[in-house]
Structures are given as C-alpha cells and as structure tokens.
Write a structure and sequence with these properties.
The structure is a homodimer.
Chain A (H helix, E strand, L loop, with lengths): L2 H9 L3 H8 L7 H14 L5 H8 L4 E7 L3 H4 L4 H15 L3 E7 L5 H11 L4 E5 L6 H8 L4 E4 L10 E4 L1 H14 L5 E6 L4 H16 L9 E4 L3 H13 L6 E3 L5 H11 L9 E6 L12 E4 L2 H14 L15 E3 L2 E3 L11
Parallel strand pairs in A: 1-2, 1-3, 3-4, 4-5, 5-11, 6-7, 6-8, 8-9, 9-10
Antiparallel strand pairs in A: 10-12
Chain A binds a DNA duplex through helix 1, helix 2 and helix 4.
DNA sequence: CTGAAAGCGCTTACAG
DNA sequence: CTGAAAGCGCTTACAG
C-alpha cells in the first residue's frame, strides 16, 4: 500500500479526509488537518500527479515550448533564462510549475506541440518565435488549450500575445540616424519566416518613407541571428557601393560579429559608420565603442507573459482579467558611442 | 464520451483492443490494427498521459533540472542547449520526452527536486552543477529515482555521473605554461561550493607541485562565472605584485571580461601575459588574439549522458549496459595565440 | 466534520 | 484474436 492510502492508514482516518485536509478544504476539523499536514510532512507525502491530474483534468504544469535547434534560441544570449524568472514569480503564487519543452530539431514543431497537447502534459502553453503563418496557433485554438504567444502572427485571428515593439525600435533607430544626417541606412534582418523580421523591415521602410527617403531592398542584409551572422552582415555592408553610413541590427549578438568584421577592414563603428544594435545584451555590453541599443526587463516581460496567460485560463481569469489584452512591449533607448557622430551634410 | 472510449465506439470495437493496437501488441489482427491506427491519426487521438501514467506507473518523461538563477546556467553560453540536442537524439529512440525543470531562484533546490520527484512528474532525472556536498543525490538514491549527475560530488556514495575532465584541463594548462617558461601562474576559480571548483584548483595545485613549484593561495582568484567575473579577475591579476605571467580560467565567458580589463590597462594577452581559457565557446571565438582553450562536443556529451541515464533505468538497462559507468569527459586543446610566447628564462 | 463510493482514462491479465 | 473487468492514485459529490 502506498500513496494516500498509506498516509490515511497511518493516521487511521479515511483517504477522503486526508485529501480534503491536504487540499485546504474548509470542512475539516482543525486538529485533524494539523495531524494530516504534520504526518504528510514527516513521511514526505506529495500527491501523485497522475492520479490527481486524471481526476481533476488539470496538471498544474505550464509548458514553455522552445525550439532548441533554432538560431533565435541558441543565440539569444539567454533571453529565455531571464524571462523564466518572471514567469515563475507569477506561477509560484498559484502552485503552478513551469516545464520547458524543447522541440527536437528533427521534429516538426507542429507535431511536437500536438503531441504535448494531446497527452495533456500541461494545462497551458507559452509559445515563442512565432512565424508569419504559424499553425501552432490554430492548433491551440482548435484544441482549446489556453496559451499566450510571445510574438505576433497572422494566424489564428484573435489570440493572446505579447510582442516586443520591433516597429518602435525600427522607428526610433531610423529617426535617430536621420537626425544625425544619415541618408543611406542599412538594416540586418533574419533569413527565416519569423514574424518579427517582417514587422521590423516594414517599420524600417515606413520610417524611411516618412522622411522622404526611398526604400532600397539592397540595404536589407539577411543573416543568421548570431555573431557569425553579424560578421557576414559586416562583409555585405562593406561590399555595398556606395557604402551605407549606418546600420540597424535586429539581434543582440550580431553586433559582436559585425564589430569584428568592421575592425578587420579598418572601419571603426562610431566614427566611420553608425551602428545601432537591438536588445542590450550582457555580452554586447563589453563592446567598444559602446553600442547604442535598446533595453527591456526580461523579468518584467516574464511576469506580464505569465499574467496574460493566466487571464486566459478559466481558473484564474477573474484574478488576472486586467491582463487579458495583447501588448507591445516597449524598449528603451540606451545611447552609446556607436552612432555618436554627425554626418557632414 | 472522449478519449479511448470515443475512438473505440467510432470503430465499434472494445477499448482494450484499441489500446493493444495502439501500443503495438502482437496479439492484434493486422486489419484491426490498421483501422485503429488510421482512425487515431484521423481523429488526432493521443493517449492521455495521466491515465497512462497512473496505470503504468511511468510517465515517459525525463526531467532535466536546472537552476535558472545561477551564474553557471545564465553565463554558460548556452551550454545546455547544446547538450539537450544530444539528449533528445537518444530519448527519441524510446519515445521518451525531455522536460527541462527550472528551479526558481527563490526555492531551495532540494525542496524543488523533492516536489518534482514526489509528484512523479518524470521517470528519471538529470541533475547538474553538483556541489561538493549535494543532498539532491542522497534524495534521488533514497527515493530510488533513476538519475545521472553531470558533475561529481562527495555525496551519495556510488552513483552515476559524468563530469568534464577539469583536472585534465588544469593539468594540461599548467604543463603547457610551464613548458613556455612560466613560473608564476594564476588561476580563476568559482566563488561557490560547486564541486568542479575544488577539482580544478586541486589539480592545479598538484600540477604545480609536480613541477616543483609552490602553491600560492594568493594566486587563486575567485570570481563569478561571467564576463563580469572575468573583468574582476583582470583587476585582481593586475593588482598582484609581482604580477603573474599567466592565468588559467575556469569558465568560458570569463575570457571576454578579462581581455577587456587587460586591454584597458594596456596589457596584451599573448604578449604581456599568457591566458588559457576553459571551454571553447562560440562567443569567445571572436576574441583577438585567439584564445587558447579546450574543446568538447556538447552533442556527444548529451548523447552519453542520456545513454548513461538509460543504463540505470530498469526498462532500458539491458540495451545500455555498456554505458553503465561513470566517465570523465575529455576536452581537447585548441591552441590559440593568447599564450603563444616563450618567457625569457 | 467524516466515511464510503464513484469515476477520471488508461493498460493488462484473464477468459473465451 | 477480442471483450469485459480490474485497478493505477487521486478528488469530490453525497449521505450521515
């Protein structure tokens, strides 16, 4: 005999009462509850999750799906570790546990998600790195699994998401560079169909046109979202004639490779070319001259993601109703020296 | 009605037969099996994990515990993402899924692990960042949960582990530096009780003494395992009088901060001081002069970890019996320019 | 306030 | 080869 039966036997009461005491039901004698709690603590009893889940229909586990083979995860300077802290702060309030579910690179992300959802391993999902068309969203809606997407998508009609304000950053960066006299501004963009790439480039184009400049597709430099990608962007940049006087990057780590490539060619960021990075990353903080970039609190983003997710789960919807809306997450300019010069007119 | 009952009704057969067909039992008519598989595919049926786990007593999920707030995770240049790929390659063969379980920084790691284990969320665990005394190991042994530790520990008597060969690296680095004429060699070590710190420093000491040099505790520079840590090591190094002519680092990212601090002081790695880094990290590859460091395949390490773990699980022990042993994982020297000079005698 | 019992969705001896 | 039934460990109406 084991589990709750063993505990009940040890206390010489019924398993029903043990369960009620453990779950904090009000209709339990205070002394009985105390005895149960004490014995559970002493014997190290914790309810078997399978039995509990089967009966209750919920697991108290929230899944965070990541695609471990992808550039955006491998190269994002522990973006996820930061966000996780925020998520857990909120989940801890409700005894929800977070499980990170890494989709193997050989497996189709949609099939992987389908499997996780069908097995009912988790009560709700957080997905990220949304594509322009992202069938995962349709799947989660169809299966009625509460979820929040970190990133927008054209899929799924209305659903819950939070996205970094890529358009805001593109806008701000273009404005800033133009105010310093730049007219030929390149941009680094991802090679994949990740939605943020479209948002970023579209906003860049709109910002240019707002200033009366013509959008030139040749200035959109595609690369992997890594230092290597930044290095290759550097090469492409140097090969353009006439050479752009400024570049805006989309991933934090690109800056490191770009600096390296430029240095090799004797082109100095902040003197010979203006560079604006994307997110302020621990690793990029060491660049010299200091990189102009944008800051956000990963902890706060995680908190907001969690609260938005809970607002879409029946059991918590009421508590978090004020978070039941989509959000563009702002990033704040961190001026550096990498674009700190005016271009002669 | 839902789940397997619905599927059985749809096919007008019993749930027992459906279950047997789905689980690949031999005693099912081929045509029946075909119909069941087809219907399951079409209706998107996947067995509810809770029902399955409750009945079978196993979940088909392997947990990887990480401590998300810790230096060694946040700053290890996506060490884990690399290992995960290898783990999944092996687990995929047996339809095992990997769930990463991040211990919240506010929670005691031992209590967290205890909770995860007691809930029976996973069939087996992988733990990492083992401490010299690590009660998690005693807990897993006591609860008879199959596990493998990435890192050794004094706890738990005999248990399954794989550890990077920190001693081998310390040895090799000391030998290499001494052969180039260095006599005053500093070492960077962690501030925490993580076991690898003890192993590394002990081996460094033994190597020095083997060469007839005296171990000097003042040359052991404690720091966080990050770029910041490397920067602070740089400061400590410059403050030593007489200044050491060489330094050996224990974490990959320290090199970046160290280089920066040395450059600020006009001290050039590879000319004025010899630097040997630890693991070859994507990010450190960009350092100039190129860092002398050590290489390992994270994918292979992940594969071996998984196979070792499976060798300790009753259902798989036989298949992986050849992996049922502890291992020191070798690292290969990648000579760079950061120590490429001989010291005048 | 407590106990006895039903039932969550599965898998697997057992009988036929 | 298939079906009927037991039972995995819980939670929760229901009765008292």
């Amino acid at each position: 005999m084991k589990g709750i039966h063993q505990l009940a036997k040890h206390l010489d009461i019924s398993i029903g009462t043990v369960s009620r005491a453990l779950n904090g039901r009000p209709d339990v004698n205070a002394e009985t509850r105390r005895r149960v709690l004490e014995a559970a603590e002493q014997l190290g009893y914790v309810a078997n999750q399978s039995g509990r889940s089967l009966r209750k229909g919920s697991t108290n586990v929230i899944g965070l799906m990541i695609e471990s083979g992808k550039d955006n995860v491998d190269n994002s300077d522990n973006f996820f570790f930061g966000v996780i802290g925020g998520l857990q702060t909120v989940f801890a309030r409700h005894n929800l546990d977070l499980a990170i579910l890494p989709c193997p690179s050989e497996e189709d992300p949609l099939e992987y998600l389908q499997r996780m959802v069908a097995r009912r391993l988790v009560d709700a999902m957080i997905i990220s790195a949304t594509q322009k068309i992202d069938k995962r969203i349709d799947l989660l809606i169809e299966k009625r699994v509460p979820f929040v997407a970190l990133g927008r998508s054209h899929s799924g009609g209305s659903h819950t998401w939070i996205d970094l304000d890529f358009a805001g950053v593109a806008n701000s960066a273009v404005d800033r560079l133009i105010s310093k006299g730049h007219r030929r501004i390149a941009i680094a963009a991802p090679t994949t169909d990740i939605n943020l790439g479209f948002v970023f480039v579209d906003a860049y184009r709109a910002a240019l046109e707002r200033h009366g400049l013509t959008y030139d597709p040749a200035l959109v430099l595609r690369a992997r979202s890594s230092e290597d990608g930044g290095y290759s962007v550097g090469g492409d940049l140097l090969a353009l004639a006439p050479r752009p006087t400024a570049i805006i990057l989309i991933y934090e780590l690109m800056a490191i490779g770009l600096y390296r490539r430029l240095m090799e060619a004797g082109v100095k960021p902040g003197c010979d070319i203006a560079v604006i990075g994307f997110r302020e990353a621990p690793r990029a903080r060491f660049l010299q001259p200091a990189l102009t970039c944008y800051r956000l609190s990963l902890q706060d983003l995680g908190t907001e993601l969690a609260e938005t997710l809970l607002s879409s789960m029946p059991d918590y919807a009421e508590i978090y109703s004020s978070h039941a809306c989509n959000r563009l997450w702002p990033l704040d300019l961190v001026p550096g020296e990498s674009d700190a010069f005016e271009l002669a007119p």
